[in-house]
Amino acid sequence: MSMILIDGKIVSNSILSRIKEETKSLKANRRIVPGLALLLVGDNPASKVYVNSKKKACEELGFYSVVEHLPNDISESKVLEYIDKWNNDDRIHGILVQLPLPKHINELKVTLKILPSKDVDGFHPENFGRLVIGLPGFRPCTPAGIVELLKYYNIDTSGKHVVVVGRSNIVGKPIANLLYQKAPYANAIVTICHTGGGDIRKYTQQADILIVAIGRPKFITSDFIKEGVVVIDVGINRVEDPKSSKGYKLVGDVDFDSVAPKSYAITPVPGGVGPMTIAMLMYNTFLSASGEIDYSSL
Question: What is the value of pTM for the model shown?
Fold first, then answer.
């Protein structure tokens, strides 16, 4: 059997197409326009690209969106004021503060300021707690996108050994919690590997599904995996490339060329997990607008 290339563009386009149709229905039947507020602080080039991509997605879906681009030296209190304003604005159903923030601004304080019912990034401790105990809530976008990839390609996770490399609050911890839930496309045995584990190959070589999110270019090579593994590469790293007009190229945390031949299925970088993050952000914003997750009743 030939290796399956897991195409995030195909899956994300399918999700976005469905959201676009459901948004038309929401507008026509309930006169609700999903609204997303985006806050960018500073001039990080990558952050600018990400925010512009999210704004463009809103426009294509017929969402209302607002972008505030604040200077790098803005005070923390001013950032919190913007969030307060959006918390109380009925046109805004989702609030996203683009990370990273300047060092003088406390990311946790900013996250806590966002109402859980508008936390479409899924980072608020209330939403994370809901995830852990299996209550409805917004799921972090990248982990939720990984689950959608597994669904689309009908990759069974029940009883399988999933090894997650990385323990961040954005990917590692939430994807582990998503996949051990007693639910379809979950119900897995999950191991989390990190820098405290020394040589992690004794764990990764046992994986039926390997999810890597550590920000180290091409760290996972063929000797880390067994034959027939499913590999989900979350990493997006810039490495120098004199042949490129930009002077760099994007690579994942997995050495694709050596790992792909041993894999049953694998995500490319770019074009694998990346497109799913924006698709799930749009999905969370639509859910918030439609009121499908009722925070007031729990």
Answer: 0.95
Classify 205 as helix, strand or coil: coil
Considering the domain architecture, whether residues 71 and 186 belong to the same structural domain is answered as: no
Q: Report which DSSP code applies to 119.
A: -
Reported as a single tens digit per residue, the pLDDT across 62-71 is 999 999 999 9
Active site amino acids: 54, 98, 121
Residue range 152-168: mean pLDDT, rounded? 97
The two structure tokens encoding residue 32: 């609700």
171 and 216 within one domain: yes
Is there a single domain that holds both residue 167 and residue 262? yes
Which residue range is the domain that position 58 belongs to? Answer: 30-115
Cβ neighbours of 286 (radius 10 Å): 24
Residues 200/193, Cβ–Cβ less than 8 Å: yes
List the end-to-end C-alpha distance of the chain, in Å, as a whole number.
47
Torsion angle in degrees (nearest 10) through CA of 290, 292, 294, 298: -170
Indicate the SS3 state at residue 293. Answer: coil
Could you tell me if 36 and 152 lie in one domain? no
Q: Are strands 237-240 and 263-266 parallel, antiparallel or unpaired?
A: unpaired
